[in-house]
Amino acid sequence: ESSIPEILDCQRRWGCRFGEASIVHNSVSPVELAETLADGFGLHFVDLIAEPPDASLLGPGDIDLYLRELILPWRKLGESPVIACADPSPETRALVMRVFGPQALLAVTGKFDIIWTVQRLFRDVLSWDASLHLDAQAPDAVVITPLAAVAVTVITASGNLYYSQVLMQPA
């Protein structure tokens, strides 16, 4: 385990929060940090793996928001949406109130729980975005066009033919 001065030095150099630097130095696990934050802020801790969110509250159009801000609609308590977050700071609270309304409640979860949950729930959308989004948005900007694909095939076949001829030559 690292000492507090080492963690503070790491925090200063990387420009991160103390808790994140503590995780890197194996002084605390991500779940322990989330539990500590929940306790310190008087909020509920949520394990998104054991207690997954209500998928009907999530939308693929909000994936960037979920991953950028590390917030995720989890459940509804009456008419109030409960938003799981990795950082229950005043800034996050203000963002949640703006996006989900003043009746929104916060719960705390681990940073990686949010990331893994988004990856699991939106696997198909993320896969499409990673592989075909540019092609759909700007087909002329994509490097592999049908003509380029044919050229690659012809060059590969020519190279294979040449290589097989070289191998068949008597020594």
Structure, described:
With 171 residues, the chain is of the alpha/beta class. The chain is built from eight helices and four strands, in the order αααβαββαβααα. It has helices at 4-14, 18-24, 30-41, 63-69, 90-100, 111-121, 123-137, 146-168; strands at residues 44-45, 71-77, 80-85, 105-108. Strands 1-4-3-2 form a four-stranded mixed beta sheet, sandwiched between helices. A hairpin with a 2-residue loop joins strand 2 (71-77) and strand 3 (80-85). The protein starts with a helix and ends with a helix.
What order do the strands of the largest sheet run in, or round the barrel if closed? 1-4-3-2
Number of strands: 4
Query: Which percent range fits the helix content?
Result: 55-70%
**Rg (CA only):** 25 Å
Spatial shape: globular
The largest pleated sheet is described as:
4 strands, mixed
Distance between the termini: 64 Å
Mean pLDDT: 83
- Bin the strand percentage: 5-15%
Low-confidence stretches: 159-164
Work out the helix count: 8
SSE run? HHHEHEEHEHHH
Secondary structural class: alpha/beta
